[in-house]
Every structure is written in C-alpha cells, then in structure tokens.
Structure prediction request, 638 residues.
Amino acid sequence: MLRLPRLLSDGMVLQQKKRVHIWGWDTPGCEVMISFLGKEYLACTDEAGKFSIFLDALVPGGPYTMEIKDRQGQELVLSDIWIGDVWICSGQSNMELPMERVRDKYPGEIADCKNPAIRTFKITEHADFRGPLADHMSGEWKPAEENTILSFSATAYFFARQMNRMLGIPIGLINASLGGSRIESWMGKEMLEGYDDFLALAEKYADDNFRESRISNNQAFAQKWHDGLDKADKGLAENWKQGILKGTEDEWKNVEIPFFFADTELRDFIGSVWFCRSFTVPDKLAGKQAKLWLGTIVDSDTVYINGQWVGQTDYQYPPRKYTIPAGLLKKGENTIVIRVKCENGHGRFTPGKDYALWNEEERVSLQGKWRYRIGAVCKQIEETDFVNWKPTGLYNGMMAPCHPYTIAGILWYQGEANSWNPDNYFDLTKRMMNGYREKWNDRELPYLYVQLPNFSGEIYDIDRNGNTCSWAPMREMQRSALSLPGTGMVVSMDLGEDNDLHPLNKKDIGFRLAMQAAAKLYGLDAECEGPMIKSVSAACTDENSGNYRISIQCEKCSGGMYAFSPNKGKSVDDFEVLDVLGNSYRAKVTLDADRIVLEVVSMLAKPVMVHYCYSNTNKGALIYNRGGFPMSPFVVAL
Prediction:
C-alpha cells in the first residue's frame, strides 16, 4: 500500500534552496512517480518497500499541490504545500512552553497571529529505547491562527514570525521537545559511544517488562501517597473548604502570603495544609466572572471560593490562573480556601508573583494576612522515575524520524536538566551536533541555541534532598560551544525571571534566535550578539598596595557599550577577580568604548581569573552593545 511518513502531509513546509527529500513505502519493486510544480520524478521501492526521491532545489512560495502515484493505480494528493525554511525546534520545557502560557503577556500578538506562511508540526511525547523509529506516532501540520496558535511553542513561534517578517518566506517549525528532558535523551547510541553509564541505562529501559514495571510503579506509588494523605486529611473530613468554621478559630494560625514555608513553622513540612482568608467584593465584581491568579505554589493546590471548587493544579511549575464563574462572587464578604499538598518539604507561595482576583473593571489583592491549618502530615512521596528522560529514548521516538526531512537548521533550548552535572555538557553538545549533521547529511547545518537565563537557583532550584544547583558552570559550558563551527548562542541573562524556571519573555528569545539565523544562514548585516572578549591583560598599578588594573578588550561592540538593568540599578556589580591563592575580590568597573577596565585594590596575590555574572542571577546592571544585545557571562584566565 502506498504510504508516506506523517511529516509529508497536507500543509507541510518544504525546504527552499536544497534538494528536498520525499520518501515513503509501497509494494517492493513498485515504481512510484511524484508530480510537483510541473516536474515529474520517478523512483522504485527497494526490497523493504521503501522509495526515496530528491526534488530539485525549490524557490519560496505556495500553496501548491503534490501528486504521488504508483503503477498499481494508487494515488495520494497532498495540498496546501508551502516552500520556505524548516527548523527543528528541540529541548526541554522552555522550548516546549506553548503560547497558551504567554497569552496574558501577549494578548495582541495572539489576536493578530493569523499567517498561513507560519506552520508547526508538534511531535507528541514518545520515547523508544529499542531503536530509531521510521515514522512518528502522531502529528500534523498546522498554520498559525487563533484556533491553533495556543499550542505552538512560544519561542519557536516568535522566531518564525521574525524570520517571516525579515525574509518574506514561509517558515515551518518541527517541534520535538519535552519538559525536563536531558541532552542525552535526544542522542542516539552511536552519539553516546564511550558513555557506558548512559548506554547501560538505555539498554535497561529497552526491556519492555522492566520499563512497564517502572511506569506502573510510578503510578502506584503516587496514587498510594495521595490516597493516604487524602484519607488522613482532617480538612477533607471536616469540610474546611467552607472556611474557618465557628469554634475552630484558635486552631488556625496566621501567615503572610506569599512566603517560603522554610521561613515559618512549616519548615520541612510534608503533607497537606489549608489556607483561608476572607475578602470584600465590590459592586463591579459581584456576580460577574473573574480571573483568579495565585502565582505558583509548591507542590499542588486545590482552590475553593465560598466553598465551591474553582481550580486545581497538580504540580509546582504552572502559573495558577483560574476562572471564577459568574454568580459565585457575592457583594461584600467572601472566602477563599486553598488546600496545598507538599511532597518534599520545600513548600512555598512564590514571592514576586501576582496574587489577586480581577476583571477589567476591578481588582482585589489577595496578598497579606491569611490563616492556615495543617490537614495531615505524611512521609515524603516516592521519587518519580521519569522514564522518557532516559538516554536515547526521545531521540529514537521523536527526533530520528525527522532526519530524512530536509531542513534549514536546528534551534535548541535546553540545559536546566543537565545543570546538576555540567562537566560533560560541552562534549555531549559537540557529539549531538555532529551526529545530527551526519544524519541530515549537512556538515554546515546551523545549530542555534539559548544559554540559560537568570534564575535564583540558590533559592528555587532544590532537589528532593534539599541540595541546590548553580547554573553558572552550565552557562560557561554553553558559551564554550561557540568554538564549534556553525553555532550561534542567544544570551538570555536579562530575559529570565529570578523567581520562575519558565520565564514568559519568549518574544525576545525568538527575536534573538532569528537575528542569529539571519546573520549566520543568510549573511544579513544584522547585529545578533553582544560584546565578546578579544583579549585580556592585567597590570600591577601599585605593588606595595596590591592594586591591579585589568583590561578586557572586546569585539562586537561598535558604537561602544553601556550598562543597564530595569530593576537592579545602574552599577555593574557582577565582576569578580580571583588571585592565585583563591581569594575573591570585587572590582570597580569602567566601560571605555571597546574596553572594560577593572580596578582591584589590596590584592594579597597576583590575579589569575576573572568571572562575570558567574552566579545564578546578576546582582547589578548587565553590559550591552549599542545594538541592545547583552554580553555573555564568562570565566577567563589572565
């Protein structure tokens, strides 16, 4: 039977200026003919029934129709085909994060998104450890419009929109991404040769019985924990969703929301705790539908207004944005109750977030004094085995079937999951990039990636055992990948949110990726990156006092440099100079055209290293060139 892979389907975008690969399956030894743009191409299926045809290089345009026929009379007709640039968009949650999550930040962008020349093919999460799949399990091409845009990767969409505006050509996005995934999840066995631990793990999960047992255990352990907690929870038994009941007032304690549990008597608490407060509803809100925003909560929550359920979120990362139905809010005093489950002892209502209910006419803040009462205490939840994150799984199930499809380049946004062990990240990046280029048979395939943004990991990025993680070494590993040919890095140290693993400013991320693509793929005379180190020198200015001047000569800064931060002052406070004894010193910083001058006093020994923004987040202003692109965090030896 004549059959095509899912990627070759209605609405697809084909790559311009390259010989485009068309392939599929039919009866062995059968001749297949493709008709496209007035040309005909012939091929014959091999013993396995596969055929392969390469179209002549194409010019941008569309929509077009393609006909595929065989000698047995079978025929397939593909319609609404466009020709432009096709990009693989991969990584973890910040690449996967959909437009749905940023709709409140960019309402105008979503309302004005209709563009048939921007299309996405979202590959559904699927891991396979037995080997690379020949075709995807699901997926279809969708154009950008209001009823589809909310499922688009926000980073990828804003990249595509900028590319489309600059070049005037269709842009196709193949989205193969998954939250929490590690780089080794997206690599094939041959790319991991020498990483015996990874390969052994992949082999273990290739056993169907073992893999299914791990999945079953995940479900069983989680169900047991939640069922046990619910059974023991006095709040459920006594109907605390109605609020503070008469006679129980003394059992409720005071707390100020937002807050970290660690800063209160709830430190290390595991179990369920109920939070309650009353609030006054004015006339403009009474009886009307309203929005309820509760920042982010660790780990899960269920929310009631006047005793009625209005929303629930089962894990810590999504923003709590619920809809209060019309008729529920009454004029005057109302109650809100939140039941929070804490799984690992790191509970919080995230500071710096919005806690309010509102509509277009009125807003009621919910920050401030609340009452709380413990429903039940229990043991720590069993650790989840995230099976699909294991080495080779996502590569085999999601990425490998993309290799035959002709593309322009790769967009990569990942690193958070590997930041706990960053030492091998450069080598893994090099192996994956070279492996992908080999599979796509394109040694110059562009590899554009996003460096990790600012984020207060010392406070927020905590594992189940209370260990914290630093992103600074990972950023340096990512910066070092710029030494590999055909790479481009987006610095995002100014685009993150210190209190959120998933910052919402994906528009600027997409823009900076597009500027990288414009410069590296098309040679457009467009600034796409911030100041970079050209040379570094140090000179002693006073041997008796131990004073030194360090000069950092920069490039990519025509027109000079400037310091800026919208909320961290104007002073550059993130340079650190280390001496040969390991002592650390702060430096006075001067920006002088294409030089950064550091003045350090009273050093006990000779300086040997300079750090810039070598921490999870910046303390002061960042350094930009006149094009508005920031300098990357760095480590440089003297």
Q: What stands out?
A: The chain has three domains: 82-187+391-522, 232-377, 532-637. The chain is about 20% helix and 35% strand.
